[in-house]
Fold each of these.
Amino acid sequence: MEYTVTLIPGDGIGPEVTAATQLVVAATGVKVLWEPFEAGAAAAEKHGNPCPDEAIASIRRNRIALKGPVGTPIGSGFRSVNVTLRRALDLYACVRPVKTIKGVPSRYDDVDLVIVRENTEGLYSGVEHMVVPGVAESLKIVTEKACQRIAEYAFRYARSNGRKKVTAVHKANIMKLTDGMFLDVTRRVAKRFNDIESNEAIVDACCMQLVRDPARFDVLVMDNLYGDILSDLCAGLVGGLGVVPGANFGENCAVFEAVHGSAPDIAGKGVANPTALILSAAMMLHAMGERDAASRVERAVAWLYAETDVRTYDLGGSVGTMAFAEALAKRVS
Ligand code: NAI
């Protein structure tokens, strides 16, 4: 069987880490026909459109995509390609497993949690305007429908992945209507999943608890902004942005991408750590039903860090992106 997968290499280190990931996927023996599209800052400059309709149509057709990071201008300029894709394809559930990898230096050796982030609304709805000069307004849009489906997703995910607990992260003490609704809906959904423990945490206190004792958390469900921030925080608990994978799921398609951005500071040097995207590709293989290939990739990553001194520069080594991928590919094949 051959799978057609949309490929968006993206900006900055994106093309480097996607090439490394393609090498490892090829080593699994799973046949993938990649359908590449440019998107991001480079595409905006070249074609005047950061997120071409053809790329969106390709993902709709193939129902699966692997995406490198894309740059987004700060303060002005075009709308984030990530936000555009997530909304156009209704990729409402962003899933980011954060797990200690033996051999990756970090403060903890027992982190194993999953962030489930609502991906389509909240403060990322993009409804912003100047009220009068000197006063700007940004609207946080929250719908019961979106709260319901992300809460259900988190509990279903917990159940089908052998997880024990779901924590709803919120700020309903201040945002009583928006976060209040998220919390009410999550409580209602929790009642239908009585095999899964549930609790709640206010987002600021949750950050403190995560930094002090991350092992107390299992699945965490939250809105768009909190999910964005906590994903990077949690990446810091297990060795940094270079090692945390992710995926965006909708009813009809899924886009797999690392948590990290385009890292312009190291782009083009061939030194980026491709682990995060390679592990995202393992999630992709799982979703395709290629479980054996997926676990071979995961085991190879675990082996590389636990048993060898092959390390990219972010983790204190000097091995380049492609050499890192070649070492993994050899183990996978
Ligand atoms: P970033 O994640 O690109 O970089 C933060 C720091 O982590 C940098 O020092 C970078 O060198 C390092 N880093 C990130 N990934 C790495 C890797 N794989 N290997 C080694 N080191 C790595 O975050 P930043 O600088 O805030 O954002 C840069 C651009 O990326 C922005 O335009 C931002 O909008 C975009 N971005 C895109 C995302 C996506 O497409 N999913 C996600 C986050 C940011």
Amino acid sequence: MIRLAIQAKGRLNEESLDLLKESGLVVEPSKKKLLTKCGDFPLEILFLRDDDIPQAVSMGVADIGIVGLNEVEERSFIVDKVHNLAFGKCRLSLAIPKSEIYNGIGYFQGKRIATSYPVLLERYFKKEGITAEIHQIAGSVEIAPSVGLADAIFDIVSSGGTLITNGLKEVVSVMDSQAVLIATPNMESDKRDILKQLMMRFEAVERSKGMKYLLMNLPLDRLDDATEMLPGMRSPTILPLAQKGWCSVHVVVEEKQLWDRIEGLKSIGAEGILVLSLEKMMP
Ligand code: PRT
Ligand code: ZN
């Protein structure tokens, strides 16, 4: 049995649960429970505040956890970073009132900066040779300048909408973050095996994201044109058709190139094109 800590509620909760679901792991619904089992896989889910996940994993209260890289780096507990999960993407940035003129990092010298990430900010300022007053605030950091609590902020930004609403502008992006899978150091070997199985499922889900499965009938003599047209074509499968001179081509393509590919394939005589969703992709 392996225990996974995920955020109980908040921005990473839903996507963490979605990843488990797409990996075929049914989390037994128990809104009020802290700990719940996971279908027929040897996995327990521990619901925590995101701030507590790095420590819980570091201490082995949970074996693994899903949490923002920003929290992992800020808390400085010793954990293994096992995998980037590609959701919860955001950045940690310095922002100042939009009316201010920004003339480089020296702007922050002697200024008061409000943040929930004092460790990361201090580390960054140290590297840049800046001495500033760092004020730790638990929430609503973005209102600090307008109420006179600070001259600038260091906070999480994703769309940037919150900064604009609060009359601020982003001037330095210090760190990129996303949800990461972390693990307790020196995990026992039986747990390591379960983690491996879990990783295989996560990676299969990940690989299939943004990919589509295309099926079509193609005149045999246009096969070379099709291969040329799809340089990134991953392992095409070519099957003979009952109708002479034709074959069936199956190929995985990136969703963002789907319509271009379809038009190209039609122009070389592809017929009966089917586009299917890809659920899992094994290496
Ligand atoms: O209750 P708990 O302590 O568990 O949750 P929390 O309130 O501390 O964290 P939560 O749920 O807000 O965020 C969890 C994690 O999501 C963060 O640690 C980041 O890793 C990640 N994440 C991704 C974000 C954002 N995007 C994000 N946009 N966390 C916070 N925000 C905030 C941002 O600070 C801004 O105030 O959302 C607001 C909207 O952002 P804009 O730029 O899109 O306007
Ligand atoms: Zn939190």
